[in-house]
Amino acid sequence: MKNIKYLVALLFLISACKHDSLIEIPASKIDCNNGEIDFVNQVLPILQTSCAVSGCHNAGSKKDGVILDTYKNIMETGGINAGDANSSELYEVLVETGNDIMPPTSSGMSLSASQKNIIKDWINQGAKNVECNQSTTSCDSVNVSFANTLQPMLDLHCVSCHTTGNTNGVFLNNYANVLISVNNGSLFGSINHESGFDAMPKDLPKLGVCELTIVKNWIAEGALNN
């Protein structure tokens, strides 16, 4: 009887250890002023809006066994070789051509060169689960320009879905298209999750206070093409 009890206890401990391994560990805080890529705010939004969507690589669809919605799932299923983007499947498929490229052309989504470079640099830096420490990272919501502030932000969070060629009718890949959404109120209304607008980014948390302030201030200053 004692042997049976010991066996049950051992199986319980093994099960507990396996359960613990499934826990998503919070990102480490870092000082991003040295140029290190912020996984939480730079890499994850790209993958969540472009790849971890229904029918592709979210937890429900897990196409080809790949899930790209959390750090743990990305590292376990994305074929990442930390320190070498060129031998990492996650990056390789982004720079493929023809039918092998991801996101697939048929999805209407695409990544910009800057988005691909963010993922490449993150992997080459060690593919770490890190997030910028806001106490050491400055947020300039006053000196805002479209070219240097707005468009890079939209490229990160929005353009993979809202680019010319998609089917949703909202394009945010250049100034003229962005201005349409500014003039009808949908740009700030959507990202601020206001009533009467579709909350964006779709199925993801609202953008941070700094990012929302940047957009609000840019619009208030005349939404200039600067």
Summarize the structure in words.
The protein is built from 9 helices and 2 strands. It has 226 residues and is mainly alpha-helical. It folds into 2 domains: 27-137, no CATH class; 139-226, no CATH class. Strands 1-2 form a two-stranded parallel sheet. The termini are far apart.
Keywords:
mainly alpha; 2 domains; two-stranded parallel ribbon; 3% strand
Could you give the topology of this structure?
Blueprint: H1 2-20, E1 28-30, H2 39-50, H3 71-77, H4 89-92, H5 113-124, E2 130-132, H6 146-157, H7 175-183, H8 186-191, H9 209-220
Parallel strand pairs: 1-2
Helix pairs in contact: 2-5, 6-9
Distance between the termini: 79 Å
Mean pLDDT: 82
Give unreliable regions as ranges.
5-22
Gross morphology is globular
Overall structural domain count: 2
Strand order of the largest sheet: 1-2
Radius of gyration: 20 Å
Q: What is the number of helices?
A: 9
Summary of the model, kept short:
The chain has 226 residues and is mainly α.
